[in-house]
Specification:
The structure is a single chain. The chain has about 450 residues and is an alpha/beta fold. The chain folds into two domains: about 325 residues, ANL, N-terminal domain (Rossmann fold, 3-Layer(aba) Sandwich), CATH 3.40.50.12780; about 100 residues, ANL, C-terminal domain (GMP Synthetase, Chain A, domain 3, 2-Layer Sandwich). Helix content is about 30%, strand content about 25%. The strands form five sheets. A ten-stranded mixed beta sheet has the order 4-5-3-6-7-8-9-10-15-14. It has a four-stranded mixed beta sheet with strand order 20-19-18-21, with helices on one face. Helix 2 crosses helix 3, helix 8 crosses helix 9 and helix 9 packs across helix 10. The longest helix has 22 residues. It is globular. Bound molecules: zinc ion (ZN). Zinc ion binds next to loops.
Length: about 450
Protein backbone atom coordinates (compact mmCIF):
# COMPACT_ATOMS: atom_id res chain seq x y z
CA UNK A 1 0.00 0.00 0.00
CA UNK A 2 1.28 3.42 -0.89
CA UNK A 3 1.96 5.75 2.03
CA UNK A 4 0.61 9.24 1.38
CA UNK A 5 1.38 11.92 3.92
CA UNK A 6 -1.90 13.73 3.30
CA UNK A 7 -3.94 10.68 4.42
CA UNK A 8 -2.38 11.02 7.86
CA UNK A 9 -2.37 14.77 8.16
CA UNK A 10 -4.89 15.35 10.94
CA UNK A 11 -2.56 16.90 13.54
CA UNK A 12 -5.17 17.69 16.19
CA UNK A 13 -6.58 14.19 16.13
CA UNK A 14 -3.12 12.64 16.16
CA UNK A 15 -2.06 14.70 19.17
CA UNK A 16 -5.26 13.85 21.06
CA UNK A 17 -4.69 10.13 20.43
CA UNK A 18 -1.07 10.49 21.36
CA UNK A 19 -1.80 11.95 24.79
CA UNK A 20 -4.30 9.23 25.58
CA UNK A 21 -2.05 6.50 24.24
CA UNK A 22 0.74 7.59 26.56
CA UNK A 23 -1.46 6.88 29.57
CA UNK A 24 -3.66 3.99 28.46
CA UNK A 25 -1.16 1.11 28.85
CA UNK A 26 -1.01 1.92 32.58
CA UNK A 27 -4.77 2.18 33.18
CA UNK A 28 -6.31 -0.35 35.52
CA UNK A 29 -8.20 -3.16 33.75
CA UNK A 30 -11.45 -1.65 35.12
CA UNK A 31 -10.69 1.75 33.65
CA UNK A 32 -9.74 0.23 30.31
CA UNK A 33 -12.98 -1.74 30.26
CA UNK A 34 -14.99 1.39 31.14
CA UNK A 35 -13.31 3.17 28.23
CA UNK A 36 -13.60 0.34 25.67
CA UNK A 37 -17.19 -0.89 26.14
CA UNK A 38 -18.99 2.37 25.27
CA UNK A 39 -16.74 2.79 22.24
CA UNK A 40 -17.61 -0.65 20.93
CA UNK A 41 -21.27 0.03 21.57
CA UNK A 42 -21.01 3.35 19.73
CA UNK A 43 -19.29 1.64 16.82
CA UNK A 44 -22.06 -0.96 16.53
CA UNK A 45 -24.73 1.76 16.77
CA UNK A 46 -22.98 3.58 13.93
CA UNK A 47 -22.64 0.38 11.89
CA UNK A 48 -26.30 -0.50 12.41
CA UNK A 49 -27.46 2.93 11.27
CA UNK A 50 -25.06 3.60 8.42
CA UNK A 51 -23.66 0.30 7.08
CA UNK A 52 -26.10 -1.88 5.10
CA UNK A 53 -24.28 -5.16 5.87
CA UNK A 54 -24.50 -4.70 9.63
CA UNK A 55 -28.08 -3.47 9.55
CA UNK A 56 -29.09 -6.74 7.83
CA UNK A 57 -26.83 -8.91 9.96
CA UNK A 58 -28.01 -7.61 13.35
CA UNK A 59 -31.67 -7.68 12.28
CA UNK A 60 -31.32 -11.23 10.98
CA UNK A 61 -29.84 -12.42 14.29
CA UNK A 62 -32.16 -10.34 16.44
CA UNK A 63 -29.29 -8.44 18.08
CA UNK A 64 -30.19 -5.15 19.77
CA UNK A 65 -27.33 -2.71 19.02
CA UNK A 66 -28.00 -0.81 22.25
CA UNK A 67 -27.18 -3.91 24.30
CA UNK A 68 -23.88 -5.01 22.76
CA UNK A 69 -21.92 -3.63 25.73
CA UNK A 70 -23.01 -6.84 27.48
CA UNK A 71 -20.63 -9.72 26.80
CA UNK A 72 -23.39 -12.22 26.11
CA UNK A 73 -24.88 -9.96 23.43
CA UNK A 74 -21.50 -8.98 21.94
CA UNK A 75 -20.60 -12.66 21.49
CA UNK A 76 -23.71 -13.25 19.42
CA UNK A 77 -22.46 -10.89 16.69
CA UNK A 78 -21.43 -13.22 13.84
CA UNK A 79 -17.76 -13.17 12.89
CA UNK A 80 -16.55 -11.31 9.83
CA UNK A 81 -14.33 -13.36 7.52
CA UNK A 82 -11.99 -12.23 4.77
CA UNK A 83 -14.25 -13.97 2.24
CA UNK A 84 -17.20 -11.85 3.40
CA UNK A 85 -15.03 -8.74 3.15
CA UNK A 86 -14.06 -9.74 -0.40
CA UNK A 87 -17.62 -10.38 -1.48
CA UNK A 88 -19.41 -7.57 0.34
CA UNK A 89 -16.90 -4.73 0.34
CA UNK A 90 -19.45 -2.20 -0.94
CA UNK A 91 -22.11 -3.32 1.52
CA UNK A 92 -19.64 -2.98 4.37
CA UNK A 93 -19.05 0.65 3.46
CA UNK A 94 -20.81 3.38 5.40
CA UNK A 95 -23.05 5.89 3.69
CA UNK A 96 -21.28 8.75 1.96
CA UNK A 97 -21.15 11.16 4.89
CA UNK A 98 -18.79 8.81 6.73
CA UNK A 99 -16.78 7.60 3.79
CA UNK A 100 -15.96 11.08 2.48
CA UNK A 101 -12.19 11.59 2.38
CA UNK A 102 -11.59 7.88 2.99
CA UNK A 103 -9.29 5.94 0.68
CA UNK A 104 -9.46 2.40 -0.63
CA UNK A 105 -6.50 0.32 0.37
CA UNK A 106 -5.61 -3.23 -0.41
CA UNK A 107 -3.37 -6.05 0.57
CA UNK A 108 -2.18 -9.03 -1.37
CA UNK A 109 -1.73 -10.97 1.87
CA UNK A 110 0.74 -13.80 2.28
CA UNK A 111 -1.92 -16.47 2.54
CA UNK A 112 -4.87 -15.46 0.42
CA UNK A 113 -6.23 -13.43 -2.46
CA UNK A 114 -6.23 -9.61 -2.55
CA UNK A 115 -8.46 -7.75 -0.12
CA UNK A 116 -9.78 -4.24 -0.44
CA UNK A 117 -10.96 -2.03 2.38
CA UNK A 118 -11.79 1.59 2.99
CA UNK A 119 -9.81 3.58 5.58
CA UNK A 120 -10.99 6.94 6.86
CA UNK A 121 -8.97 9.83 8.24
CA UNK A 122 -10.02 8.98 11.76
CA UNK A 123 -8.42 5.54 11.70
CA UNK A 124 -5.35 6.87 9.95
CA UNK A 125 -4.89 9.46 12.73
CA UNK A 126 -5.24 6.72 15.37
CA UNK A 127 -2.80 4.50 13.45
CA UNK A 128 -0.30 7.36 13.25
CA UNK A 129 -0.46 7.78 17.03
CA UNK A 130 -0.25 4.01 17.52
CA UNK A 131 2.92 3.70 15.44
CA UNK A 132 4.32 6.78 17.15
CA UNK A 133 3.88 4.98 20.47
CA UNK A 134 5.18 1.64 19.15
CA UNK A 135 8.27 3.07 17.49
CA UNK A 136 9.20 5.22 20.47
CA UNK A 137 8.48 2.50 23.05
CA UNK A 138 12.05 1.19 23.15
CA UNK A 139 13.35 4.69 24.00
CA UNK A 140 15.49 4.91 20.84
CA UNK A 141 13.39 7.09 18.56
CA UNK A 142 11.39 10.31 18.86
CA UNK A 143 9.01 11.79 16.30
CA UNK A 144 11.12 13.74 13.81
CA UNK A 145 14.16 11.45 14.00
CA UNK A 146 15.34 9.23 11.18
CA UNK A 147 14.17 5.70 10.58
CA UNK A 148 14.76 3.03 7.94
CA UNK A 149 12.40 0.55 6.31
CA UNK A 150 13.15 -2.60 4.34
CA UNK A 151 10.01 -2.88 2.28
CA UNK A 152 8.37 -3.59 -1.06
CA UNK A 153 9.59 -0.61 -3.07
CA UNK A 154 9.51 -0.07 -6.80
CA UNK A 155 12.32 2.36 -7.44
CA UNK A 156 14.97 2.13 -10.16
CA UNK A 157 17.78 2.49 -7.61
CA UNK A 158 16.25 -0.02 -5.19
CA UNK A 159 16.29 2.59 -2.41
CA UNK A 160 15.48 6.23 -1.67
CA UNK A 161 15.48 8.66 1.21
CA UNK A 162 11.97 10.00 1.85
CA UNK A 163 12.63 13.46 3.31
CA UNK A 164 9.10 14.26 4.44
CA UNK A 165 8.92 11.27 6.76
CA UNK A 166 12.71 11.09 7.22
CA UNK A 167 12.78 7.47 6.22
CA UNK A 168 15.49 5.56 4.40
CA UNK A 169 13.50 3.12 2.25
CA UNK A 170 15.25 0.05 0.86
CA UNK A 171 13.65 -2.51 -1.44
CA UNK A 172 13.14 -5.95 0.06
CA UNK A 173 13.00 -7.61 -3.36
CA UNK A 174 16.07 -9.14 -5.03
CA UNK A 175 18.26 -9.08 -1.93
CA UNK A 176 21.69 -10.33 -2.89
CA UNK A 177 25.27 -9.77 -1.63
CA UNK A 178 25.65 -6.55 -3.65
CA UNK A 179 22.44 -4.92 -2.39
CA UNK A 180 23.13 -6.10 1.17
CA UNK A 181 26.46 -4.29 1.10
CA UNK A 182 24.79 -1.19 -0.38
CA UNK A 183 22.12 -1.20 2.37
CA UNK A 184 24.77 -1.56 5.04
CA UNK A 185 26.55 1.50 3.63
CA UNK A 186 23.25 3.40 3.53
CA UNK A 187 22.57 2.54 7.19
CA UNK A 188 26.05 3.89 8.03
CA UNK A 189 25.44 7.05 6.05
CA UNK A 190 21.92 7.87 7.30
CA UNK A 191 22.21 6.42 10.81
CA UNK A 192 18.49 5.75 11.37
CA UNK A 193 17.33 5.30 14.97
CA UNK A 194 15.52 2.12 14.02
CA UNK A 195 14.84 -0.26 11.14
CA UNK A 196 11.48 -1.84 10.40
CA UNK A 197 10.39 -4.49 7.92
CA UNK A 198 9.28 -8.03 7.28
CA UNK A 199 11.29 -10.48 9.38
CA UNK A 200 11.93 -12.66 6.30
CA UNK A 201 13.54 -9.74 4.46
CA UNK A 202 15.53 -8.50 7.45
CA UNK A 203 16.72 -12.04 8.11
CA UNK A 204 17.92 -12.41 4.52
CA UNK A 205 19.66 -9.06 4.66
CA UNK A 206 21.45 -10.06 7.87
CA UNK A 207 22.34 -13.52 6.60
CA UNK A 208 23.90 -12.03 3.49
CA UNK A 209 25.90 -9.59 5.62
CA UNK A 210 27.10 -12.39 7.87
CA UNK A 211 28.12 -14.48 4.85
CA UNK A 212 30.25 -11.54 3.75
CA UNK A 213 31.71 -11.18 7.24
CA UNK A 214 30.01 -7.79 7.66
CA UNK A 215 28.01 -6.19 10.46
CA UNK A 216 25.91 -3.08 10.82
CA UNK A 217 24.21 -1.32 13.70
CA UNK A 218 20.79 0.13 14.33
CA UNK A 219 19.64 0.73 17.93
CA UNK A 220 16.27 -1.00 17.44
CA UNK A 221 14.46 -3.20 14.91
CA UNK A 222 10.70 -3.54 14.56
CA UNK A 223 9.49 -6.69 12.87
CA UNK A 224 5.99 -6.72 11.44
CA UNK A 225 3.45 -8.19 9.02
CA UNK A 226 4.64 -11.79 9.30
CA UNK A 227 5.34 -14.30 12.00
CA UNK A 228 8.77 -13.70 13.55
CA UNK A 229 10.72 -16.95 13.98
CA UNK A 230 13.31 -17.35 16.74
CA UNK A 231 16.06 -18.09 14.21
CA UNK A 232 15.24 -14.83 12.44
CA UNK A 233 15.30 -12.82 15.65
CA UNK A 234 18.64 -14.34 16.67
CA UNK A 235 20.26 -13.59 13.30
CA UNK A 236 18.95 -9.99 13.13
CA UNK A 237 19.94 -9.20 16.73
CA UNK A 238 23.45 -10.55 16.32
CA UNK A 239 24.30 -9.04 12.90
CA UNK A 240 22.75 -5.62 13.58
CA UNK A 241 23.80 -5.61 17.28
CA UNK A 242 20.28 -4.60 18.19
CA UNK A 243 17.08 -5.54 19.96
CA UNK A 244 14.14 -6.79 17.89
CA UNK A 245 10.58 -5.83 18.86
CA UNK A 246 7.75 -7.77 17.28
CA UNK A 247 4.67 -5.79 16.26
CA UNK A 248 1.65 -7.71 15.02
CA UNK A 249 -0.56 -5.47 12.89
CA UNK A 250 -2.31 -5.54 9.55
CA UNK A 251 -3.29 -3.03 6.89
CA UNK A 252 -6.96 -3.34 7.78
CA UNK A 253 -6.09 -1.22 10.84
CA UNK A 254 -8.04 -3.40 13.22
CA UNK A 255 -5.27 -5.14 15.19
CA UNK A 256 -2.14 -4.28 17.13
CA UNK A 257 -0.20 -6.56 19.46
CA UNK A 258 3.16 -5.13 20.44
CA UNK A 259 6.17 -6.59 22.21
CA UNK A 260 7.19 -4.70 25.37
CA UNK A 261 10.62 -4.25 26.95
CA UNK A 262 10.12 -7.44 28.95
CA UNK A 263 9.49 -9.46 25.77
CA UNK A 264 5.73 -9.95 26.14
CA UNK A 265 3.21 -9.27 23.39
CA UNK A 266 0.50 -6.89 24.64
CA UNK A 267 -2.81 -6.41 22.81
CA UNK A 268 -3.16 -2.64 22.30
CA UNK A 269 -6.71 -2.43 23.53
CA UNK A 270 -7.02 1.33 23.14
CA UNK A 271 -6.63 0.87 19.38
CA UNK A 272 -8.61 -2.30 18.73
CA UNK A 273 -10.52 -4.91 20.71
CA UNK A 274 -8.82 -8.31 20.44
CA UNK A 275 -10.53 -11.63 21.12
CA UNK A 276 -9.06 -15.13 20.84
CA UNK A 277 -11.73 -17.59 19.74
CA UNK A 278 -12.01 -21.32 19.16
CA UNK A 279 -13.31 -23.03 16.03
CA UNK A 280 -16.92 -22.37 17.09
CA UNK A 281 -16.30 -18.70 17.75
CA UNK A 282 -16.25 -19.05 21.54
CA UNK A 283 -13.55 -17.35 23.65
CA UNK A 284 -10.72 -19.68 24.68
CA UNK A 285 -9.33 -19.70 28.22
CA UNK A 286 -5.72 -18.57 28.86
CA UNK A 287 -3.12 -20.98 27.53
CA UNK A 288 -5.41 -22.47 24.87
CA UNK A 289 -4.69 -21.54 21.23
CA UNK A 290 -7.37 -19.81 19.21
CA UNK A 291 -7.84 -17.41 16.33
CA UNK A 292 -7.08 -13.72 16.82
CA UNK A 293 -10.33 -11.89 16.08
CA UNK A 294 -10.36 -8.12 16.18
CA UNK A 295 -12.62 -5.09 16.16
CA UNK A 296 -11.08 -1.83 15.04
CA UNK A 297 -12.31 1.04 17.19
CA UNK A 298 -11.88 3.97 14.80
CA UNK A 299 -12.77 3.27 11.19
CA UNK A 300 -16.30 4.57 10.58
CA UNK A 301 -16.02 4.34 6.79
CA UNK A 302 -15.81 0.54 6.94
CA UNK A 303 -16.15 -0.87 10.45
CA UNK A 304 -14.58 -4.31 10.85
CA UNK A 305 -16.34 -6.02 13.73
CA UNK A 306 -15.13 -9.36 15.10
CA UNK A 307 -12.86 -9.80 12.11
CA UNK A 308 -11.13 -13.17 11.83
CA UNK A 309 -7.44 -12.73 11.07
CA UNK A 310 -6.53 -16.40 10.51
CA UNK A 311 -3.61 -16.01 12.93
CA UNK A 312 -3.26 -18.05 16.08
CA UNK A 313 -2.30 -16.97 19.62
CA UNK A 314 -3.08 -17.79 23.25
CA UNK A 315 -3.66 -15.50 26.21
CA UNK A 316 -1.34 -15.55 29.17
CA UNK A 317 -2.41 -14.43 32.63
CA UNK A 318 1.06 -13.91 34.06
CA UNK A 319 1.66 -10.34 35.14
CA UNK A 320 4.22 -8.55 33.05
CA UNK A 321 7.11 -6.81 34.83
CA UNK A 322 6.92 -3.92 32.34
CA UNK A 323 3.92 -2.50 34.22
CA UNK A 324 1.50 -2.44 31.29
CA UNK A 325 -1.98 -3.69 32.03
CA UNK A 326 -2.92 -4.43 28.43
CA UNK A 327 -3.59 -8.19 28.17
CA UNK A 328 -0.68 -10.25 26.90
CA UNK A 329 -0.51 -13.15 24.49
CA UNK A 330 2.03 -15.91 24.14
CA UNK A 331 3.74 -16.16 20.78
CA UNK A 332 1.73 -15.56 17.63
CA UNK A 333 1.69 -18.37 15.12
CA UNK A 334 0.15 -18.78 11.77
CA UNK A 335 1.36 -16.38 9.15
CA UNK A 336 3.78 -18.15 6.94
CA UNK A 337 5.97 -17.01 4.17
CA UNK A 338 7.88 -18.87 1.55
CA UNK A 339 10.65 -17.87 -0.82
CA UNK A 340 11.06 -18.03 -4.56
CA UNK A 341 14.49 -18.01 -6.20
CA UNK A 342 15.29 -15.84 -9.22
CA UNK A 343 17.44 -17.20 -12.03
CA UNK A 344 20.35 -15.19 -10.66
CA UNK A 345 19.95 -16.98 -7.32
CA UNK A 346 18.40 -14.08 -5.33
CA UNK A 347 15.80 -15.08 -2.75
CA UNK A 348 12.43 -13.38 -3.26
CA UNK A 349 10.05 -13.36 -0.26
CA UNK A 350 6.54 -14.39 -1.28
CA UNK A 351 5.17 -11.19 0.25
CA UNK A 352 7.24 -9.26 -2.29
CA UNK A 353 6.34 -11.56 -5.17
CA UNK A 354 2.61 -10.97 -4.76
CA UNK A 355 2.61 -7.43 -3.40
CA UNK A 356 1.77 -6.03 -6.86
CA UNK A 357 -1.63 -7.71 -6.75
CA UNK A 358 -2.98 -5.35 -4.12
CA UNK A 359 -6.17 -3.86 -5.39
CA UNK A 360 -6.42 -6.34 -8.29
CA UNK A 361 -10.04 -7.39 -7.83
CA UNK A 362 -10.05 -9.44 -11.05
CA UNK A 363 -8.11 -12.15 -9.22
CA UNK A 364 -9.90 -14.18 -6.60
CA UNK A 365 -6.70 -16.04 -5.79
CA UNK A 366 -3.21 -16.20 -7.17
CA UNK A 367 -0.77 -18.88 -6.14
CA UNK A 368 2.82 -19.29 -7.33
CA UNK A 369 4.59 -22.65 -7.21
CA UNK A 370 8.25 -23.04 -8.07
CA UNK A 371 9.75 -26.43 -8.96
CA UNK A 372 12.85 -25.38 -10.91
CA UNK A 373 15.01 -22.28 -11.29
CA UNK A 374 13.82 -21.46 -14.79
CA UNK A 375 10.16 -20.90 -14.13
CA UNK A 376 7.11 -20.91 -11.89
CA UNK A 377 3.57 -22.21 -12.17
CA UNK A 378 0.99 -19.49 -11.61
CA UNK A 379 -2.46 -20.67 -10.56
CA UNK A 380 -5.23 -18.15 -10.93
CA UNK A 381 -8.79 -18.32 -9.69
CA UNK A 382 -10.62 -15.69 -11.74
CA UNK A 383 -13.18 -13.29 -10.37
CA UNK A 384 -16.20 -12.70 -12.65
CA UNK A 385 -14.64 -9.41 -13.78
CA UNK A 386 -11.48 -11.16 -15.09
CA UNK A 387 -10.88 -10.48 -18.80
CA UNK A 388 -8.57 -12.62 -20.89
CA UNK A 389 -6.12 -11.73 -22.42
CA UNK A 390 -5.86 -8.19 -20.91
CA UNK A 391 -5.73 -9.26 -17.26
CA UNK A 392 -3.44 -12.21 -18.03
CA UNK A 393 -1.09 -9.75 -19.67
CA UNK A 394 -1.16 -7.56 -16.53
CA UNK A 395 -0.39 -10.57 -14.34
CA UNK A 396 2.56 -11.52 -16.55
CA UNK A 397 3.89 -8.00 -16.58
CA UNK A 398 3.63 -7.66 -12.80
CA UNK A 399 5.35 -11.01 -12.17
CA UNK A 400 8.14 -10.26 -14.62
CA UNK A 401 8.88 -7.04 -12.70
CA UNK A 402 9.05 -8.95 -9.41
CA UNK A 403 10.64 -12.25 -10.45
CA UNK A 404 12.81 -11.12 -13.35
CA UNK A 405 12.16 -10.88 -17.09
CA UNK A 406 13.79 -14.22 -17.76
CA UNK A 407 11.46 -16.19 -15.45
CA UNK A 408 9.15 -18.59 -17.32
CA UNK A 409 5.51 -18.19 -16.25
CA UNK A 410 3.19 -21.18 -16.72
CA UNK A 411 -0.24 -19.68 -16.14
CA UNK A 412 -3.05 -22.04 -15.26
CA UNK A 413 -6.65 -21.14 -14.47
CA UNK A 414 -8.24 -23.27 -11.80
CA UNK A 415 -10.87 -23.44 -9.07
CA UNK A 416 -10.29 -22.72 -5.39
CA UNK A 417 -10.30 -26.48 -4.72
CA UNK A 418 -7.31 -26.92 -6.98
CA UNK A 419 -5.08 -24.56 -4.97
CA UNK A 420 -2.44 -26.05 -2.70
CA UNK A 421 -3.02 -25.74 1.02
CA UNK A 422 -0.80 -26.09 4.05
CA UNK A 423 -1.46 -28.84 6.64
CA UNK A 424 -4.08 -26.74 8.48
CA UNK A 425 -5.94 -26.03 5.26
CA UNK A 426 -4.74 -22.47 4.71
CA UNK A 427 -4.09 -21.30 1.17
CA UNK A 428 -0.68 -19.69 0.86
CA UNK A 429 0.31 -17.43 -1.99
CA UNK A 430 3.67 -19.07 -2.75
CA UNK A 431 5.11 -22.55 -2.44
CA UNK A 432 8.74 -23.42 -2.94
CA UNK A 433 8.99 -26.96 -4.33
CA UNK A 434 12.61 -26.83 -5.47
CA UNK A 435 14.62 -30.04 -5.05
CA UNK A 436 16.36 -30.38 -1.64
CA UNK A 437 19.86 -29.80 -3.07
CA UNK A 438 18.78 -26.37 -4.41
CA UNK A 439 17.04 -25.49 -1.13
CA UNK A 440 20.29 -26.16 0.64
CA UNK A 441 22.44 -24.37 -1.91
CA UNK A 442 20.36 -21.17 -1.69
CA UNK A 443 19.87 -21.41 2.08
CA UNK A 444 16.08 -21.16 1.85
CA UNK A 445 14.63 -21.09 5.39
CA UNK A 446 12.05 -23.76 6.09
CA UNK A 447 8.52 -22.62 6.92
ZN1 LIG B 1 5.03 -6.12 29.21
Amino acid sequence: MQFRVRDYFSPLQVVAHHWRMREAPLWSPERLDAWSRPRRKGLIAHAYTHVPYYRRLLDKHGIDPTRVDRDEVWRRIPLLTKDILREHARDLTATSRFSRGAVWAGTSGSTSSPLRFLLDRRVNAAAFALFWRAWSSGGHWRLGQRQAALKGLNHPDGWRYHRVIQTLEMSSGRLDPVTARLYRDLLERYRPRFLRGYPSSMYLFCRLLRDEGLEAHVPMVISGSEMLHDFQRAMIESVLRTRVYNHYTHWERAASILECGAGRMHAQEDYAHHEILDRDGEPVPPGVPGEITTTGLYNLAMPLVRYRTGDIARWTTERCPCGQTFPAVERIEGRQNDYLVSQSGALIPSTYAVTGFKGFPELLYIQIIQRDLEGVEVRIVKAPSYRDPEDTHRVREELHIRLGREMRLDIRFCTTDELERNPVGKIRSCYNRLPPELIERYGIPAV
